[in-house]
Amino acid sequence: MSLITTLIGIIFVALLNGLITERLLSTKFQFTRRNPIPTQDHVVIVGLGRVGQRVATLLQKFKQKLVVISSRVTESDITSQIPLVTGNIIKSLEKVNLATAKGIIAVTNDEMLNLEVALMSYSVNPNIRLVIRTYEQRFSDNLAKLLPDSISCTSAVVAEAFAGAAFGENILSLFRIDHQTVLVTEYNIETGDISD
């Protein structure tokens, strides 16, 4: 009985040691497979919620070099393809080569954090293109006076999309160019339709 207990204990310790070793090695290889942070002409996305993930997906389609800053680790298809810096967002700005970045998109759920990120980025690189997500139109208008770049008020953009939908349009997408929202709509043209 004593011999059987000893053998079971040895086998259990060996299996436990193997599982721990496998876990440590797989974690090490995950860190080494991460994409390197671009050194210049890249876009920094701050916030990896639904909006941040959608922005990252669209910029990937346009073949832009990206790096994402998030306060928490998020496992998704995007994070396996794009360099991801996690932790304190303000401290993480030092790690993403802001001085040579061409743009920063702050899309966290915190307006004040988005503003702080934009101001810190602008102080490091005055030529950086800023895109800031806000929720209140008055706050956006005041920011537009302070920072001449893109300030996107969520409620204003959504209101424009709702207005377009009220006309019966099938809105596929929307984006902003030079302080104007462009709605991408779908039209069905049939034989006999008259074009002006």
Helices and strands in order:
Layout lengths: L1 H31 L10 E4 L3 H12 L4 E5 L6 H5 L2 E3 L2 H4 L10 E4 L4 H14 L4 E6 L2 H10 L3 E4 H13 L3 E8 L2 E7 L10
Parallel strand pairs: 1-2, 1-4, 2-3, 4-5, 5-6
Antiparallel strand pairs: 7-8
Please explain how this structure is put together.
There is one protein chain. By secondary structure, this protein is an alpha/beta fold. It has a single domain, classed as NAD(P)-binding Rossmann-like Domain (Rossmann fold, 3-Layer(aba) Sandwich). Helix content is 45%, strand content 21%. The strands form 2 sheets. The protein has a 6-stranded parallel sheet with strand order 3-2-1-4-5-6, with helices on both faces. The radius of gyration is 24 Å and the shape is elongated. The model has no long low-confidence stretch (mean pLDDT 82).
Task: Give a concise summary.
The chain has one domain: Rossmann fold, CATH 3.40.50.720. The protein is elongated and about 90 Å long.
The CATH class, by name, is Alpha Beta
Structural class: alpha/beta
Number of domains: 1
Strand and helix order: HEHEHEHEHEHEHEE
β-sheet strand percentage: 15-25%
Main pleated sheet? 6 strands, parallel
Q: Which outline best applies? A: elongated
CATH architecture level-2 label: 3-Layer(aba) Sandwich
Sequence stretches where pLDDT stays below 50 over 5 or more residues: none
Distance between the termini: 95 Å
At the fourth CATH level, what is the homologous superfamily?
NAD(P)-binding Rossmann-like Domain
Mean pLDDT over all positions:
82
Radius of gyration: 24 Å
Tell me the strand order in the biggest sheet. 3-2-1-4-5-6
The count of DSSP E runs of length 2 or more, i.e. the number of strands, is 8
Number of helices: 7
Percent of residues in helical segments?
40-55%
Here the CATH topology equals: Rossmann fold
